[in-house]
Amino acid sequence: MQVTDEKLALFRSLFVCRDEPYPEQYSPEPGVAKWAVRRERLTDEVLRAHLEGRKTIGLYSSAESMTKWLTIDLDNRDQQPVRETVERAQKQGLPVYVEDS
Predict the structure, then answer these.
(1) Model pTM greater than 0.90?
(2) Strand pairing report for 22-26 and 34-38
(3) What Cα–Cα distance (Å) separates residue 20 from each residue in 38, 58, 60?
(4) Which helix (DSSP H) or strand (DSSP E) does residue 23 occupy?
């Protein structure tokens, strides 16, 4: 996926709460995934690598425990719980982004 500067800026504005530290996933051996805390600045190049699938990172809330987003993982092929969750959030004025992972 081509990540334009505009897409990168949009992702940063919607999801990034702090620039450091951030977790990064690595594989010490095949089939094993672990996480390490990177105590460095979260650069646009790191974000671009994540969005292009070359790297897997996580994002932390702000140092004040404030966040811009909430993730709800609904492991259910039934779409009704997803629709109900979206409707409740929208009634509260919360923006919703649904992804089928």
Answers:
(1) no
(2) antiparallel
(3) 8, 11, 9
(4) strand 22-26
The tens digit of pLDDT for each residue in 23-81 reads 999 998 888 999 999 999 999 999 999 999 999 999 998 888 888 877 788 777 788 88
The residue written with tokens 């982004």 in the block is 97
Picking from 73, 77, 70, 75, the residue whose alpha carbon sits closest to that of residue 96 is 70
Name the residue among 56, 36, 45 with its Cα closest to residue 12: 45
Q: Residues, the chain, total?
A: 101
Give the dihedral sign, CA 91/18/28/52: positive
CA 29, 31, 37, 41 torsion-angle sign: positive
- 56's tokens: 């897997």
